[in-house]
Records
---
Amino acid sequence: MRPSAPLLLTLLAASALHAAPDTSPPAPYGPTPSARQLKWHENPFYAFVHFGPNTFTNREWGFGDEDPQKFNPTAFDARQIVAATKAGGMNGLIFTAKHHDGLCLWPTKSTPHNITKTPFRSGKGDLVREFADACKAEGLRYGVYVSPWDRNHADFGGPGYVQAYHRQITELVSNYGPVFEMWFDGACGGDGYYGGKKGSRQISYNEYYGWKTIREIIRTRQPDCAIWGGQYDEAGRTHYADARWGGSEKGHVGETCWSTLSSDKSKRGERVGHHGVRDGDVWCGAEGDVSIRPGWFWHEHENSKVKTPAKLWQIYLQSVGRGANLILNLPPDKRGLLHENDVASLKAFGDFLRAAFANNLAKGASFSASNVRGGRRDCGPDRLVDADRWSAWYTDDAVTTPSVEITLTKPETFNLIQIGEDIRLGQRVEGVAVDIFENGDWREIAKAPCVGARRLLSFPAVTASKLRLRVTKSPVCPALSDFGVFLAPEPPEAEFAGKLRKQDRTGWKISTDHPGNNNAAKAIDGNPDTFWNTHANSGESGFPVSLTLDLGKARTLKGFTALPRQDGTAHGVVDRFRAETSEDGKTWTKAAEGEFSNIRANPVEQTVLFEAPVKARHLRITALHSLEKNHASFAEIGIVE
Ligand code: FUL
């Protein structure tokens, strides 16, 4: 018998009320990470090691004409560096096998400009081998940086160099065991030595290096290796690698940080590396990069500027804690060892991290969720704390803003919460919040605009026995897989990192030869946020333009410091300079001339040391060129005595 129309309507209404339970897992949302990318996200903290000719020449970028004989570490020990990396809480290390200066630190067949020409191990050394072996021995993952830009190679800009570069990559991924990440620097400056021909060579980063071939070389030999950087355009779309730059060299990524990008150029917003692109069509997670010191290479004058555990924790929260990875640079000194200040800071930071995450106070708690997918036990909220990273709490498709109450076994004090998403199903959630139950009511203590691989929420310590995790916004049902409640100790502000002294500028006067400009005093006001700027009064002023410092009395100058403007723009940031000294303010002697390397990506204080100390009362700094716009600026100028 066919049901009558009213009966049919009643049956339909009843089945809507009791919708069939969602028994299958939630469908993925947007792009999802490959197995390789998933592995990469699971190991978010590792070291960078910048070591090479610059260590010996006190530079950040070598010009390419460095004599390999200068590369002479006297006590190099990869095991010391690897041990400090491990102590710092990292489980991988990426070594700069070749930086922009072009010296290959392994015995490559691709160019004679390599380690065999150095005195290191009497020309028989292989730093890549030593790092790879030390990592293996200590159970660390090993990775490689090999600079695309090569200021030494005579054929840079032509096909000869690309061939040599591909050969270098082939050697590095064939002869040294597993490589977990290859780092392809985006820097592509212009001028260099280029086999003695010198001059400036411009290439197109996306087109010149043959990224498609490079990927094939790596994929066929190291299928698990994550490729960082090295994107190329084809048919109007950008083909991204496995992971991307976090958008600054300060280590942090945006508070909102999506692991997705758009291959369609028109869909990109501002600061793409920092924030990613919501609803992008490619998975490409962010990696924050930063050095434990201001520069990437070791400089003696930075021994007292090693980041403290407290600073490292702040960076960690703003990278790893925002779903990104963090690569922390540890530059060995001229001995080929990490300086004792870096070692001490790393050990203290590692101890701090281990203590912070030692005890998940949510283990053993009882969980009660507003919804569980299909009412199924294997989708329940207790999956948030089980040992399996990938078991998750799923809700029904229609439930996008669920919450879960967590009752701890007893009142606990905590200041840190970790939340993880099951990113195998994409990055889904667009808002989470955590409340505690206090004096009979819920109080919000932390929130975040997205989660991803992991989110860390840090807040002043609270004591409670009941918490609530709320998903406040999500386009689809959420898939959360991790929840941790921790009490992190105070991260040490360490003594060993050195005390930074403010320079005493009493009696100093400063002037400029730029007509109509009267804000030179801002370059010695001790305030990093104000700056001298020749643009202020007369547009694009051109070069050269000078600042002259009268120190009031003769002093012995070892060099000078220059802090670029700190407001984030490259306009007027001086990247080429000349420094002269004078005893009487009339007769001048050149003390130094050169470039402020890497100042665009890493606008930290620059220290220029003279060949020998000079006695002088006057110091003239002449700007010869700037990164953008034809004018000059400095936030601060100082002296090194
Ligand atoms: C930059 C380079 O120019 C720096 O020297 C450094 O290697 C940093 C990690 O990347 O782009």
---
Amino acid sequence: MDNARIHPLLREIAAVFQNYGRDLYLVGGAVRDLCRGEKPQDWDLATNAPPEEVMTMFRRVIPTGIRHGTVTVHYKGQAVEVTTFRTESEYRDGRRPGKVEFAATIGEDLSRRDFTMNAIALRLPEGSPVDPFGGAADIKKRLIRCVGDPNERFSEDGLRPLRAVRFAATLGFSLDTAALDAVRPALTITAKVSPERIRDELDKILGAGAGSGAGRPSTAFRLMERTGLLDLLIPELAACRGVEQKGYHQFDVLDHSLLACDYASRERYPRQVILAALFHDLGKPATRKAGERGIWTFYQHEKESVRLCRKILTRLRYPNAVIDETCHLIGEHMFHYTEDWSGAAVRRFIIRVGEEHLENLYRLRQADTYAMAGLEPDPASLLPLIQRVDGALAGNRAFSLKDLAVSGKDLIEIGVKPGKHMGIILKELFETVVNDPSMNSREKLLEIAGKINERYL
Ligand code: ATP
Ligand code: MG
């Protein structure tokens, strides 16, 4: 273990605890990361001091979760969470501990933790390990193993199976067979877990490809499929298994979706793009029809994908802005650019997609292309379209009513009545300009507006 990576500030904080006659340990993900030779993201500390006492030890301490024994210590510009040793015995509703009791020893505290790799403590300041369940050896074996009996651990908290597959995906570890076998019997417990907790795990799964190691989201989804978690949590995705496509595609719809998701995660695309990559073809099972010469067609599948994606993300309590952009990208993912697109066609594409979504739509296309055969997409393949789009954006702007050389006020001045007629006229002017941006002058547009207006008078 690389103790040199223990932050010097943690040693200083530990000295304060020592002055109070209290013990302090580094615990959780940070210790796991140190064991793997990785730099920890955040620091979780455990102590035998009650939270009220920790509040008195430092000048700035925030009682972030004091009911559960957690306070946040701000020390020399760093924030660390300090949690009093706990035992958690009852998870009656499968959601959260029925009651929190403080424990006397680090050993007790470690024994309530989920996996052996998460149940190692380093005593501070020196960093000597406390590892009662062989967590360090499991990390070496790249194995996720439960602390104690997996069936018991999973029935206490139905989120743990999902945490297990999440860690498998982010760390590239495998799941111990006893733990794997314990997932299915606990599905009824997992079914009671709050959607917000499920969503937070799913988000971490989606980011699995962004690390330095062997992480990828598909590892989690394959384990979820195998254990019934996918049927429980995202049955719409599970339904894509066995939906063959042929043509340019090598894979069924599920494998294709997982590859697209892995690519988007690996490229560190925004979350909306990773979600869109995962869900862009959800509508294929319902829209598949046998076409000519036995080739499958999926006419307008993107519409059904949007519908199902919205259903899933709403169920999982994703923020509306994320849902809207993800669905928008999916709805637009079927564009087919060819050189013979007119300037107006390029402008219509920009208007339909929206300038601010173009980059993400290109990214989705790259992921989709990769996932057809698992081959790196040619970065040049989208260039012809991108160049046309950039050219259009740099030219005379005509992408929204705001870009028009005339406003509603100008129209009123030439005698157009506000209301429905004005709306019709503005739309007509906009169409004119989209077709031919050189028409976007005050003089020309007012002339056209005047003529249309006469028709309504
Ligand atoms: P990451 O921060 O990457 O999600 P982590 O291991 O730090 O990983 P946290 O959710 O921050 O995970 O939790 C910190 C520690 O608390 C874990 O390492 C584990 O020991 C314990 N823990 C968290 N959630 C649970 C749970 N549902 N059941 C049992 N122990 C848990
Ligand atoms: Mg953590």
